Amino acid sequence: MIIDYLDRSAPGDIQADLCIVGAGPAGIAIARAFIGSNVAVCMIEGGGLAGEDRSQSLYDGESTGDLPLDAGTSRMRVFGGSCTLWGGGCIPFADTDLEPRDWVPDSGWPLRYAELAPWYEKARAFCRIDPAHGFGPGHFDGPSPRQPLDLDPEALVNFIFARSPITFGEAYREELQQAANITVMLHANVMELETTADAGVVTGARIGSLDGRRGRVRARHFVLAAGGIENARILLLSDSVAPAGLGNDRDLVGRYFMDHPSGTIGSVRSDDPDRLTRPYERTIGKVRAPLSPEIGLSFEAQRSHRSLNARVHPFAVEGQVPRGIRALRDVRAALRPPRHSEATLLEARLSAALQNGPGGAALAVQQNLVISAMRLGLHMGDVVKAVAQKIADRPTVRSDRAELVGFFEQAPQRDSRILLGEDRDTLGLRRVRVDWRLNDLDRHTWRTTTLIAGERLAAACGGRFEPAAWTLGEASPEVHGTAHHLGTTRMATDPSTGVVDPDGKVHGIANLHIAGSSVFPTGGWAFPTFTIVALSLRLAEQLRVLLNASGGLL
């Protein structure tokens, strides 16, 4: 069932077998695995069923690192989590992503693809990807809608990824609502995890609402599944017994913070830039393709150049738009219903902040409908030509150039971290301070990717590559985050190098586990959600064994 903690008729305290903090893809995957079992599950979510400015403001923080990263707009506090805004991209890691690399300090997972493969299979079903789409290490199988470029495999590789057609909150809300053994608490914010006197066992989660209500959730096992920033923040806030925060005996909680930095690495000028961009378009007509290719650095190139992983996406930049097409777009914009609800306005604001395409595009200006309709009638011939082009699977507006946007793996480094700032939120809790740092290996990767990809992709369409000055060190870095928050509770067998063990259990705490991208030791270039779900389903099975072995409620 789903209850709202703001409703005073809802219970103030909950007793459960398993308490999950966070109702994003990780939390929902774990909770759903227990539907119909004899395990009582309580899933705590700080937001509501839709976005709300007041709840969202609890994510605000400060940024003090090499580059700005806005903790308040790069994630979403809502049932379904930040994947409420995701693009659906899914791809598994390969062993080359998981193994240590001697040129990447602190790299290497304590897991390999063979251990994750059965959980990737279950993640495919959870993400509702067609089971006909097989997969292997670092790729999905099957043809993409358009034939990708023939690339030099020593330098660049086409990786196929799958598209999940769902958002998790919408897809699984009804199942969780109907489940008798699942309690989802909305608008319940975890303020601290309480422990025994030696901080070896978590006994409860102290919760609060924005209207002043306070309570506790007690359980036998606890899972933090609140995201790459918030998982670390909750551990650091839980300092009543452990002054440095839970699981932080070795000062590792919040460290090794990573994202996938992204920026435009240059432009390709060509008489036919669509030859480069069309094979990598993710929407064919008005339909999102279930499989799409991405251009990535080959592992051979990474090893020989001693660089991190990266991918490059070519985006078409339109040339002159025919007047009839421009008028048709203006008519559609004028007829589009305005966004008035708080949730839709918040989603639009966060989506704009998370835009991962080339920057600098002009905003569309809504025209007077009558004037736009008149212009459309005067230039209907342009629309007729565009229809013919679309039927022939050709672009309706000729491209001026292709902009190459790089998405880069980030080097794990100890001093890139999440801390607690001095400012406090409405609940009286210290806000996060993001100290996002990049190093020489990151800058080397940007340059390497630019030089390898730029000339080769330009040659593929008979064009000329113009690198962005920043990629060559001639200007300040023009990169931004992509809201893939990684690494702040990293996984390691040795407690001196990681916060959680290979099973996701916090070192030194008997019943506290962490799910999500915060456990990633490295991030590759891959979209993280598919691996988040696989690891979460794996953790759910481990929890099932632990709960069955330990008997009744505390």
Give the gist of this structure.
The chain is of the alpha/beta class and 554 residues long. The protein has 14 helices and 24 strands.
Task: Describe it.
The longest helix has 22 residues, at 529-550. The chain is an alpha/beta fold and 554 residues long. It has helices at residues 25-33, 53-56, 95-98, 113-126, 168-178, 230-237, 274-277, 299-305, 323-335, 342-353, 369-378, 380-391, 440-460, 529-550; strands spanning 2-4, 14-15, 18-21, 41-44, 61-63, 89-90, 135-136, 139-140, 156-163, 182-186, 189-195, 202-208, 214-218, 221-224, 262-269, 283-284, 287-288, 291-297, 310-318, 399-408, 417-424, 430-435, 464-467, 512-514.
How widely separated are the two ends?
22 Å
| Helix coverage percent | 25-40%
* SS strand fraction: 15-25%
The whole-angstrom Rg is 24 Å
Taking pLDDT < 50 over at least 5 consecutive residues as the criterion, the unreliable ranges are: 360-367
Figure out the total of helices: 14
Number of strands: 24
Identify the strand order in the major beta sheet.
6-9-18-19-20-15-23
Main beta sheet strand tally, sense and closure:
7 strands, antiparallel
Oligomer: single chain
Give the overall shape, derived from the CA principal axes. globular
Average pLDDT metric: 91
Q: How would you classify the helix and strand content by structural class? A: alpha/beta
